[in-house]
Amino acid sequence: MQEVPDLIVCEGCDAVYPRPELHSREVARCRRCGTVMARHWGRMHERMLPLTVACLILFAIANFFPIVKIQLRGLHSETTLVGAVMTLAGEGLSEVGLLVLLTTLLFPLVQLCVLLYLLLPISLRNQPPAGFRILVRAMQVMRPWGMIEVFLLGVLVAVVKLSGMAQVIPGAALWAFMGLTVLLTAVLAFEPQAFWRLTFGRQGENMP
């Protein structure tokens, strides 16, 4: 199939348009269905690397430190995310524990590690790393499965309910999860297709 670099096809309705010349932070949308067809990220990729490193630091704090500490009648209890997963497994809720482990630990961690692996050579040498195509596609597949914000919402609801029965002290991990949720929103907004643009130029923008 012959590529036509001066044309762009809408992924929503297959309408064909001349490829627009975009300036920094401009977005091109389909006139028929409103689908975003092209986006100029400006120098966003240069800020993605430090944001990704910050996400990994917060991710480590969120998983190695207690989420909350509960005190009741002189007794206290605290747990980490991994500890909560193990507790679920021990109470016969292995499926729920596995789901929590995958969506709040494994998938977000893999996404961040892949993002760091992709950004380092692009930022330092302007060259794609080995396995570039497979990893960009993998990021696009994993994106819907990272649900840290859902986990955080559940924890906050539980904290509010428990505060009426016991003293609940937020741990370092809870604050780290809050910061991580904000940073991940910014980091994962950087669409995987933008890597094609950064690495292969104009013709890379719509490559699969």
TrEMBL record:
The chain crosses the membrane at residues 48-68, 96-120, 141-160, 172-190. The keyword Repeat does not apply. Pfam families: PqiA. This is Paraquat-inducible protein A. InterPro entries: PqiA-like. Keywords: Membrane, Transmembrane, Transmembrane helix.
